[in-house]
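USER: Fancy drafting a protein?

ASSISTANT:
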Amino acid sequence: MPRTADHLSPGQLEALRLVANGLTSLEAGRVLGVSEQAVHLRLKSAARTLGARNRVHAVVVAARLGLIDLNDSRISVRPKGQAA
């Protein structure tokens, strides 16, 4: 049985928010100052906590629970090679 959303860490929520905004694990890691592997682990743990099958499902569940806002555009995603 999935645990409640209050079992998610701030790092897990931030990783979910970043990938929901289109960032890869590598890009999210750069934003968070952690490795790509650390982001993978945060997403995997969040998915398990939410009872989700994968990272996409975890984002959907988190959004449905009101944990992340899919309209949050604080992170802009640029095509590769495009300068800030």
Remarks:
- The radius of gyration is 13 Å.
